[in-house]
Amino acid sequence: MGGFRVGYAIGNAELIKALRQVKAIVDFNQYRGILRGAIAALSGPQECVTHMVETFANRRNAAIEALQTIGWSVPEPNATMYIWAKLPDALPHGWATNSIDFCTELIADTGVALAPGRGFGQSGEGTYALRSCSRPMC
Q: What is the secondary structure of 36-75 as a DSSP string?
């Protein structure tokens, strides 16, 4: 169910009512198929989850090691499959402060896709995000 989000809110009835009104405009509720899938995923066997978490961690760690080997300072996250790091100041073409151009050139030249930090708002500029992938082709 990668990409699907399931959650809940508990609290003051008036606040929950207001939240429902906002959520009805901003996005949509999940249909029963996704909810049933979430129930099965949360209440079923968890061995596959352990395997997937290990796969994500191994791929993330390999990417961090490779980046650190070429001199990029990349922090190891505590609990995520994402790498979020600052672009090195020494990058050519002003890319350290232009994450969109950097990511565009990177994918064109290497096929490696990163999410430009600018896509997460002005404060994200000068950074990038890399998501570990569960599919073998990633």
A: HHHHHHHHS--HHHHHHHHHHHHHHHHHHHHHHHTT---P
